Description:
alpha+beta, eight-stranded mixed beta sheet, nine-stranded mixed beta sheet, Four Helix Bundle (Hemerythrin (Met), subunit A)
Amino acid sequence: MIGRLWRAFTARRATRAKASLDALKVRYHTFRVLLANNERALDRLAAFETALAAGAPAEALAADVEDLLAVAFEMVDGAVRLDVPEGGALYDRQLRLEEALRAAVETLDDVGRGPSCLPLAAPLAAADVGGKAAGLSQLTRNGFPVPDGFAVTVRACRDFLRETGLEDAIRRRLGQAPAGEAPLAEACAAVRRDILASELPDWLRADLREAARNLARDGQPAPAFAARSSALTEDRPEHSFAGQFVSELNLSADTLEQGFLAVMAGAFTEQAAVYRREAGLPPAALDMAVLVQVMVPAVAAGVVFTIDPVHPEAERMLVSAVPGLGVLAVSGAAPVDVYRIDRADPGDVIAHVARKTRRAVAAPGGGLRREPVPRDQKHVPVLDDAVLSRLARLCLAAEALAGTWSDLEFALDGDGALWLLQCRPARIMWGGKRPPAPPKEFYRGGMAATPGRCLGRALHVDDAADLGQAPDGPVVAVLPTAAPEAARGLPLWQGAVVAGGNPADHLSTVARETGRPMLTRAAGAVEAIPAGALVVLDADAGRVTAAPAAIGDVAELLRPPVRLAPACAAPCLSPARLRLHELLAPLTLTGAYGPTFSVLECRTLHDIIRFTHEVAVMALFSAGDALLSQSLDQVRILRGDGPFEVMVIDLGGGLRDDAPERHIKPESVASIPLAALWRGLSAPGQRAAPLPGSDASGVFGRGLADARNKRPVGEPNYALAARDYVNVNARVEFHFAMIDAVCGPRARGNHVRLRFKGGGASPEKRRRRARCLERILKSAGFFVSRGDDLLSASLADAPEATTAESLVLLGRLLGFARLLDAAMTDDDAPDRAADAFLAGDAALAAFTAGVPTA
Length: 854
């Protein structure tokens, strides 16, 4: 009877254990479906952003939103099936967002006009605002001193001409003008009279006034404005239209509308029409945008060619300058000082000082006034050596950003501040002479997550602690992996280069939202780009090049990066489309372990996607604990040369079919990530005893009584394993480690995550141990976050070989850290131990506590 009872008991226990394992396998496959849906959701989010920016029809956008909502709901449903604690609240938050998004979709239409006046701080495209405004926008976003302003878009200018009936009149007058200069001049004069006599539509008048009000500083009088042309065909290498159009200076808020009309009329001067005809362009082209900026109260102004256009072989810049405003310099109507500056040494200047006769200044009632130059200033250089050196460095930086020799306009105000007013490609006469060598290329490759160019010092970022600190001057961040936590740093950087990642990941989405150029999947970039080097990132071309050394310290020249509001990051969207963007794309959940990482903080669908993915990863750890608490009958015990054994739960494909025994050896492991982890654990030289001279007192006593972690001391280490997946829950002596990894042939989707905490030593020793591990992990390309003795590290989207090597390293670290706390006797110990480990001395044979290694 006892035997029958025992057999019945063991049979029931085996049945329950098998049922538990089957349930765990179901949970695992639910988790893998959730991982696949996470990739689908990010892909669809990226595609939606592209469609939104491209002006896709409302019907197509509505379909994209429904597709995104369906994938997001599947993710949330999967997380709930994994029994995440926040399941009910997650459902509720997702449904609320679903209602808000569908309501926003209902307001979409295909004819809604976007903003007509776009700020220069936004990422403006030449196709929307012309080359002049787009060039100044790029300078503004990179911290160059550019007067604040906005651009009235080409579309708004065309709508103005169409709604007032001027479009048809222009085409008729210029299209039907007989051949000859006189009839063309007559037709152009009539067109200009029509434009100047017209009234602005109410929407354009309101937008102009609102944009002008936004340029006034709080408590200050309204500034004076300059209105200038920014045509689609202007400031291009093939035709510059230099001097062909009209600029209106020293406008007030009351005369700005008339200034706008004057610039529009200036597109149809006789000389502009002749220039168009000679360039093979239609004389009636409606391609004008209007640039409005705050006027600089200039005491001097002029033009800079970053290389002498006539004698480029001399490798000198050419600067012309006049006192007062720059209109006399660009028109050639007054004598100018000429300076030729050595490109490699801005202090080397050849000056030709003219006898000044007159200057242009702002008139008190508006407009300009020409007046004689005072007698005591006629022979004085307009620019002194210090200003010339700063101007040369600033223009060399602008040239590096543009990627070509440049023709710039500048102004110097009464406080000694320099301002850039224009930057366009310079026309150079090489005459058969050999051009200079291209800039040094640090890196080529990767994929553009966000297009654009930026300039800054290379800043290597592998630590979450670096993310909240404003850098000293403009920087281009270089990251080993696309950690979502790094999104907090993007507003502080000019751009970023990421060795791992992909254009659809969280970080890439935030880069597009903030308008920061970013190169992703840039394998080898961390090693190739020197920290601290002044570089130019061209995300479109997949290049990082060296900027000229003569620029010097850019922190002295440039402002901090502009932080963009959503309306600025997506400047051409109508209000309804902007609302969709705000509900979908921004990522506010950037720290995975902080107090604000909560379902209650999920404000966008992007937040829902990230939060659901993170809590699903954590859910599998508790699932393994539950199985172990019920029965050990369904697990295998992995033993080998490692310092401890691991209980393996096969989720399918984790172990070879020919390994039915309870105790298995490493060769029975089929899981790629578990095999890599075990190779590290069983590496030779793993230390198994306290170091000579180390302080192990109290470690064991404290450790055995440690009840702060979820799993008490003495419970087994276990791994949930599949062919390309492992989830490890380990108690390494008195430390608690969790590892989650996917390692397969497809780089996208591969990841390694580590959390390491605990220990029986004093808090100070545990913190030192965390510092030691942090340095080792950073050297291996992990992005690391450390708080007290909790260490979190991640690596994402790396190739299979790289991911496997990182798991080998983690295996070595688990053995290395077993009694590491005891050796952390002084503040230098973390670095000494890390140096020894990285040098191959995992057993710390040459390490003596408190004494540097030889």
